[in-house]
Amino acid sequence: MLYHLLYPLTDDINAFNVFRYITFRSGGAVLTALLVSFLAGPRLIDWLRVKQGKGQPIRADGPQSHVLTKKGTPTMGGVLVLLGVTVATLLWADLTNRYVWIVLFVTIGFGAVGFADDFLKVSRYNTRGVPGKLKLVLEASIALIAVAAFSYVTKSPLNETLTVPFFKDVLIDLGWFFLPVGAFVIVGASNAVNLTDGLDGLAIVPTMIAAASFALIAYLVGNIVFANYLQIHFVAGTGELAIFCGAIVGAGLGFLWFNAPPAMVFMGDTGSLALGGALGAVSVVTKHEIVLAIIGGLFVLETVSVIVQVASFRLTGKRVFRMAPLHHHFEQKGWAEPTVVIRFWIISVILALAGLATLKLR
């Protein structure tokens, strides 16, 4: 909005020329989302606490310590993140950019699915919300619509192809099969973040790290000079998604203020599904779907731990981990919650650096 209001006035007020720069507007988005979170956070948390009463239902099959330490904490804090991301993006991004609107559609759509799930849980005070199959159908529908829109907006041949890290000229033409593959990336990323969201501050920091990494990737992919220099595929218009990713970082920082141990509010499915879906959508647009699996490797590890645990128990009757997802395994081994969280943050930073290295190693 500010871009459209102020940049045209550059001839009269030269200072407004800064609004042409994506880097400046990305910084503005970070600060705006952070400010929105700080200002809205206390009132939203108080309102959620009053409305929810007993707070988020705690799983009986989870760590027993959580029943005591996390009981009564309100959920749906993801609303705060969504508010910050949406306001900051609409304020600082170029609203004629179709990628911005499609990614916002995914974020808000997945957030709505998560909100419905959280609402059913707290209203019934039961850990069962929206039925799993229905939730998956809703997520897949949103993702398929988004990928179809991406494919329509993006110029050929990148609209239906998959790029491979470390290889500058390799393009895998998927044809119509790109739709389910892209949707799988978005839905998979969404649910991977959701599985990771089990300890105070555990999911939001790796999400911010991944968002910051993809802010850089989006900027480089959308700049023909940098794209040619790094020998990555140029996708016109994706640079604006750096502003969206910056908004995620700012909103995440604001949310972390209230989610730091001991958490005043939980993100809930409202936030985790939305943020995971957003990361997946940005990776599809920037043609870095495989790189997302590296940068978001922590989310992948958490998801794989659940798959391995379930498969092992069904096939052999034995469990590989003491408890899944993976963070609960280390809790059961005696690691303190802050120790698990901070060490997982460190792993996220290392994986993000590894993922960003693929931009040059070609």
Please summarize what this structure is.
This protein is mainly alpha-helical and 362 residues long. Helix content is 67%, strand content 2%. It has one domain.
Structure commentary:
The two termini are 38 Å apart. This protein has one domain. The protein is globular and about 60 Å long. It has helices spanning 2-6, 22-52, 64-69, 78-92, 98-124, 132-153, 178-196, 204-221, 224-230, 241-259, 268-285, 289-295, 297-316, 326-332, 337-357; strands spanning 161-163, 171-173. The protein has a two-stranded antiparallel sheet with strand order 1-2. The model has no long low-confidence stretch (mean pLDDT 91). The protein is mainly α and 362 residues long. It has 15 helices and two strands. Helices cover 67% and strands 2% of the residues.
What descriptors fit this protein?
single chain; 362 residues; mainly alpha; two-stranded antiparallel ribbon; 15 helices; globular
pLDDT averaged residue by residue: 91
Distance between the termini: 38 Å
Shape: globular
The main β sheet shows up as: 2 strands, antiparallel
Low-confidence stretches: none
* Secondary-structure-derived class: mainly alpha
Which bin fits the share of residues in helices? 55-70%
Please list the strands of the largest sheet in the order they lie side by side.
1-2
- Number of helical segments? 15
Strand content: under 5%
Got a strand count? 2
- Cα radius of gyration in angstroms: 20 Å
SSE sequence, one letter per element: HHHHHHEEHHHHHHHHH
Overall number of domains: 1
